[in-house]
Amino acid sequence: MESVKGNLLEKINSPADLKKLSKSELKNVCKELRDYIIDVVSTNPGHFGASLGVVELTVALHYVYNTPYDQLIWDVGHQAYGHKILTGRRDNFDTNRKYKGLSGFPKRSESPYDAFGVGHSSTSISAALGMAIASRIKNENDRKVVAVIGDGAMTGGMAFEALNNAGGENADLLVILNDNNMAIDPSVGGLNKYLLNISKSDTYNRFKHDVWEGLGKLDGIGRKTRAFIQKNQHALKNMLLKENNLFEAFNFRYFGPVDGHDVQYLTEVLEDLREIPGPKLLHLITQKGKGFPFAEKDQIKWHAPGIFDKETGEIHRCNCEAEMAPKFQNVFGETLVELAEQNEKIVGITPAMPTGCSMNQMIKQMPHRAFDVGIAEQHAVTFSAGLAAQGMVPFCNIYSTFMQRAYDQVIHDVAIQKLHVIFCLDRGGLVGEDGPTHHGVFDIAYMRTVPNMIVSAPMDEVDLRNLMYTAQLDENAQPFSIRYPRGCGIKPDWKQAFEKIEIGKGRKISDGNDVAILTIGKSGIFALDAVKSLASENISAAHYDLRFVKPLDEELLTEVFTKFDKVVTVEDGAIQGGFGSAILEFMAAKGYSARIKLLGIPDHFIEHGTTEDLYKECGIDTNGIKKGVLDILGK
Ligand SMILES: Cc1ncc(C[n+]2csc(CCOP(=O)(O)OP(=O)(O)O)c2C)c(N)n1
Ligand SMILES: CC(=O)[C@@H](O)[C@H](O)COP(=O)(O)O
Ligand SMILES: [Mg+2]
């Protein structure tokens, strides 16, 4: 447990303690809080740069607002470590993201200060509006609600749906746009250009700053005049900027841009804004990684760096890379470039995860054929459909969990029209410390129900490459999904010549007589070891890697159900409607009868922890598979 340095933070067990301090002490609180976040995250890895960027905002918000009565919603929530530390979780913050420890994101069940559970982007304004309207209905007129949303999250369509509705309702809420010109990678799109223009517009800012500073020197009258300016600043801005402010077009009063690292100034601004009714947007300019030079300098790497040395900035590499087994994402990234070099119709699309999915390689080498569309999964899918409708072959890479956002677009815009879009669902399966908001465990079920969709999952990196190669062939011009896990595979020698895979074809990995183990995707790797362990107990288990969930390899399954009357299926995915369900459907349709055990994710949300902890909890690791076989054999 890292010890808190300095004597202010160690006395803050809730925002009530913070409020006892004078404004002049807040700067020191920020320093201690920032140092504590650096200390803990350097040894207990998690999201990093984002929390450092909102230290001052976090202190100012809990100083001015009456949390938890006033409600504070953090968009995505990866920047809420300071919020957690100030709201009674300082002493157990070292359990952040650990199995049975604190969640890495705000979570209603964890604290009354966590007004809304987050993890997926762009939800905060909608949730805040719901709370504001509820307060209005309940006549809780003194209750305030604040949504803190980043410039990246603001590119999510849902944010604009909420702005529109909030403006129409004339709801009393404050949206704080935390603009650091970064998502995980640099922010993209027209909104980014617009925000840069506002932030850099000298005319307005110079006037604003000079007048504001001048007024600051006059206490009483200064405050009142400042409040007057704030109340009427949109007219002032229009006059000076002679342009309609995007947010005011949604009937929001726009305030800013304001320095997000001046805690005293921020506190005063928030005190004024708290008393102004109606929809308001405060535009803050912050720096991701603020106060930690390595993170300020390389904001992408320090979004979630892993374990690091806080003195030298050296980041420890994850084990698998040390063992030279590549990450699945890197195999995807390199293979995509290789295929694009030989097929000029190939284009790449990622909704704001170029580094996360390794499409940054294609973006760098072929900038006219690879697109980061912002945090906009629904748009990414239909943008891909448009590309395919004109003969391109889009590789649309979306994390399995984030693809949940775009399910209708997959059906309505791609599958019904049977367009040749290749969905690469990275992070398929349990992802570990990000927990239930990020586990990609529903994609097998949700993709296999879609007509015209080919659903596949490689067991290793060689098969990932060959599935990608197969998917882009003209003969397979239809919707195609390939799901693969976070982290590393098992094949250091993965870079082999492409081999076409027959659609729907699975493979027998090893023969056996007592039981058949059927796996899909990375679960097959655990089955390899389970078969060996069972053999040492004289149990002969056959292992089949089905490779496709749809279409199923009916020839292989006929062999299985002809030979075996005991079958175990394994998937890193929801059992309900998943791979095992597909096998049951096959059995029923063909009239086979066998004892069958389905191993996978049970019908509840799996919390956070290491993937080892979680695979064990779900019984889909080597020991879990072995136990499943022993159970079905009655041993
Ligand atoms: C729907 C969805 N898509 C993608 C992500 C992955 N993601 C997490 S944080 C982030 C960038 C957020 O940028 P911003 O809102 O500006 O916050 P910052 O990190 O700059 O503080 C992304 C793309 C997500 N959490 N949710
Ligand atoms: C907060 C968020 O949604 C992303 O930062 C996500 O945690 C990235 O996941 P990976 O670390 O698997 O890329
Ligand atoms: Mg940002």
Description:
Belongs to the transketolase family. DXPS subfamily. It catalyses: D-glyceraldehyde 3-phosphate + pyruvate + H(+) = 1-deoxy-D-xylulose 5-phosphate + CO2. With 635 residues, the chain is an alpha/beta fold. It folds into 3 domains: 289 residues, Rossmann fold; 156 residues, 3-Layer(aba) Sandwich (Rossmann fold), CATH 3.40.50.970; 126 residues, Rossmann fold, CATH 3.40.50.920. It contains 26 helices and 17 strands. The strands form 3 sheets. It has a 7-stranded mixed β-sheet with strand order 7-6-8-9-11-10-15, sandwiched between helices. The mean pLDDT is 94. Magnesium ion binds next to loops.
List the helices and strands and how they pair.
Blueprint: H1 15-19, H2 26-43, H3 49-53, H4 55-64, E1 71-74, H5 81-89, H6 124-137, E2 145-150, H7 157-169, E3 173-179, H8 190-200, H9 202-216, H10 219-241, E4 253-259, H11 263-274, E5 279-285, H12 293-297, H13 319-322, H14 328-342, E6 346-350, H15 354-357, H16 360-365, E7 370-372, H17 377-389, E8 393-397, H18 400-403, H19 407-415, E9 422-425, H20 443-448, E10 454-456, H21 461-471, E11 480-483, E12 507-510, E13 515-519, H22 523-535, E14 541-545, E15 548-550, H23 554-563, E16 566-574, H24 579-590, E17 595-601, H25 611-618, H26 622-632
Helix pairs in contact: 2-4, 4-11, 6-7, 9-10, 14-21, 17-19, 22-26
The chain binds thiamine diphosphate, 1-deoxy-D-xylulose-5-phosphate and magnesium ion.
Cofactor: Mg(2+); thiamine diphosphate
Binding site for Mg(2+): 151, 180
Function: Catalyzes the acyloin condensation reaction between C atoms 2 and 3 of pyruvate and glyceraldehyde 3-phosphate to yield 1-deoxy-D-xylulose-5-phosphate (DXP).
